[in-house]
Design brief:
Oligomer: single chain
Largest sheet: 5 strands, parallel
Helix content: 40-55%
Number of helices: 6
CATH topology: Rossmann fold
Strand order of the largest sheet: 2-1-3-4-5
CATH superfamily: Response regulator
Length: 157
Amino acid sequence: MILLCREGDSMKKTVLVVDDSKLASYTVKDGLEELDPNFTVITVDSGKKCIELLEQNQLPDIILLDIMMPEMNGWEVFKLLRKNQHWKNIPIIFITAKTDNFSKGFGKLLAEAYIEKPFEVKDLKQRIEKILETPFELTETKQKIIDDMIEHIPTTK
């Protein structure tokens, strides 16, 4: 098991990619690690595996979360992340092929970024770096917005 750590070497950054597309996950992993050896990219292919990893207290610096996944979609994973005291301050970037106005608006409001597929890995790297420049903490205001909106987040059911 790979131990993820959000503390220690401030140069090293761990990115957790949650995407059921092996090609998309590989592209992000290979691209980020090639562009910057200070990135360690861990991939899981489902929301369930993401939650299992986090339950083992293996916390990344940032999560890249696909929306369209079977069983537990990205919206559902997002809900679980933001409701958990130990995980709510992990920044999240939605990376998705969903381009409808509802998803884009909702995603941009809730997460730290919303990036549509396809994208350039170098642009993704810049977004990650910008987000990680400042220590992330979910503000009370944003938590209230999320709490108020959480019941409206789409689910697969």
